[in-house]
Amino acid sequence: MTTGTIHNINTWLTQINNDFKAAVSVDCVIFGYDDDALKILVSKCDMPPFEHEYSLLGDIVHPDETTDESAKRVLIAKTGFTDVFLEQVQVFSDLNRHPLGRVITVAYFSLIKIDKDHLDHLEKNAHLQWLDVNEIRSLAFDHFNIMHTCLRKMQKQIREQPIGFNLLPKNFTLLQLQRLYEVVLNIVLDKRNFRRKLKGLGILKDIGEIEEAVSHRPARLYTFDESVYENKKVTGFNFEL
Amino acid sequence: MTTGTIHNINTWLTQINNDFKAAVSVDCVIFGYDDDALKILVSKCDMPPFEHEYSLLGDIVHPDETTDESAKRVLIAKTGFTDVFLEQVQVFSDLNRHPLGRVITVAYFSLIKIDKDHLDHLEKNAHLQWLDVNEIRSLAFDHFNIMHTCLRKMQKQIREQPIGFNLLPKNFTLLQLQRLYEVVLNIVLDKRNFRRKLKGLGILKDIGEIEEAVSHRPARLYTFDESVYENKKVTGFNFEL
DNA sequence: CCAAAAGTGTTATATTTACACCCATGC
DNA sequence: GCATGGGTGTAAATATAACACTTTTGG
After folding, report:
1. Distance CA B140, CA B56 (A)
2. Most A-contacting residue of B10, B30, B87, B139 (CB-CB within 10 A), to test interface
3. 3-state SS string over chain A?
4. Which strand (E) or helix (H) includes residue B221?
């Protein structure tokens, strides 16, 4: 192919041939943290040849929405949460990744709090299920690959930005936060160093309350102080642990 | 919209309606470093209403190629280089981003060495031009936005991985390398600390030669030792400056 | 001899790591 | 009283930051 003859969508191409159109979808890796495990929300897949696999939650992108909007729509529809942390990760476009034909998908990951209200909602979607990321051996389509890519990106991002709070209840103890990092990153953290680091960042607010109904000394409860974070962010911020 | 009624491309949807197909393109932010400036390769745009703007190099994604392959094809066609550093950045899918209709684009950035052979090749593509990223005020379509997003991602990545070498000749002096970082990141670096840091990383190989034809004390020439980097990468590597 | 970049070490400061004990609560 | 996690400080090691002069080459 010579340089003079290739199409160029940014110059003299004047119409788009139908042969060059593709279906575009979004797929969401929805992370939740529960029971000291990192989980993702999946759905039973009933499309051959993946009838006995689980798949990520996704949908085709509608003509009147961006891919970000599409991913948000999927999340709201499936989880009921309207205010979700959502991050675009990567396009997957292998030619035969989907049995319906050419489907180019944009992968997203999302972090949500698994709570009682949420579980009630999920009961209406009996086909949905939480899987421990460490126990997943395969998923439908190329979703195992997508899940892994999103997991790596999330692990990187959780070290650089305070996004882990999205996985915890509004108020949490320092040990809960530490365990979250340990589980997500598969590492062991030193309690004192972890606490010093987080208090030093100044993004935690002691809400002046303590745990209730625990069979040990109750811990103080903290919340993520987003306003402090927003102020510091501009000057640079290192969340490394 | 209720949860029971949304489409789901991963379950019971059995065909893809043409109304749900879109044109998919790739757009490449091709970075080059020359004359102590970071530049990008652009093309004169002749599509209304952007006749007097420059645009990124891109093309529609063909039915028989992934988006990565598509981006690589554009790069080879426009620059002649077959072995290019290429990184997927993000999807841009605003509804009216392209005058031909719905075009969802996948943005990539690429790092290449600007050298004489390259310039010879470009002369055959008279519509191509290098623009200093600091002097660009606008580009066609949403390309200014795309360029900025790619620039930020590249700046982040160059601090974490030794990708800067892709912008330099095979052999280079330490000062050239330092200037590259200073220009790309808009920072000032300390010469001694920079040298200590890089020598400590062990990824530079002194090739035993010196600069020629310079009107000052000639500097040693180094090259990037990829094999050492590949070995170290698995154990973790911090390229922060 | 002048201009231009090459090349080189030390000290102070900040950050990170490693590590052990007493405390409060429920049962 | 015992099991469980809550909560705290210090010292060593490492990494980062600041800083100035002599050397070598070409013109």
Report:
1. 8
2. B10
3. CCCCCCCCCCCCCCCCCHHHEEEEEEEEEEEEEECCEEEEEEEECCCCCCCCCEECEEEECCCCCCHHHHHHHHHHHHHCCCCCEEEEEEEECCCCCCCCCCEEEEEEEEEECCCHHHHHHHHCCCCEEEEEHHHCCCCCCCHHHHHHHHHHHHHHHHHHCCCHHHHCCCCECHHHHHHHHHHHHCCCCCHHHHHHHHHHHCCEEEEEEECCCCCCCCCEEEEECHHHHHHHHCCCCCCCC
4. strand B220-224
Fold classified for B21-160: Nucleoside Triphosphate Pyrophosphohydrolase (3.90.79)
A18-160, CATH topology level: Nucleoside Triphosphate Pyrophosphohydrolase (3.90.79)
Torsions phi, psi for A136 (to 5 deg): -80, 125
Contact across the interface for A11 and B62, Cβ inside 8 Å:
no
Residue nearest to nucleotide C10 (CA to C1'): B192
Give residue-wise pLDDT tens across range B29-77: 999 999 899 999 999 988 888 989 999 999 999 999 999 999 999 999 9
- The partner residue sitting opposite A24, judged by closest CB among B14, B22, B64, is B22
A36 C-beta neighbours (distance < 10 Å), count: 10
* Dist. CA A75–CA A86, nearest whole Å: 9
CA of A190 to C1' of D6 (A): 14
pLDDT in tens, A124-180: 776 889 999 999 999 999 999 999 999 999 999 999 899 999 999 999 999 999 999
DSSP character string of B74-88: HHHHHH--SS-EEEE
pTM: 0.93
Helices A174-185 and A143-160 pack at an angle, to 10 degrees, of: 140
CATH 2.60.40.10 holds for B168-233: no
Q: Which two tokens stand for residue B59?
A: 């093309």
Residue B159 backbone phi and psi in degrees, to 5: -85, -15
- Amino acid of residue B145: N
According to DSSP, residue B177 is labeled: H
Those residues whose C-beta lies under 8 Å from the C-beta of residue B151, and which sit 6 or more positions away, are B29, B109, B133
Domain ranges of chain B: 21-160, 168-233
Tell me the one-letter amino acid at B103.
Answer: V
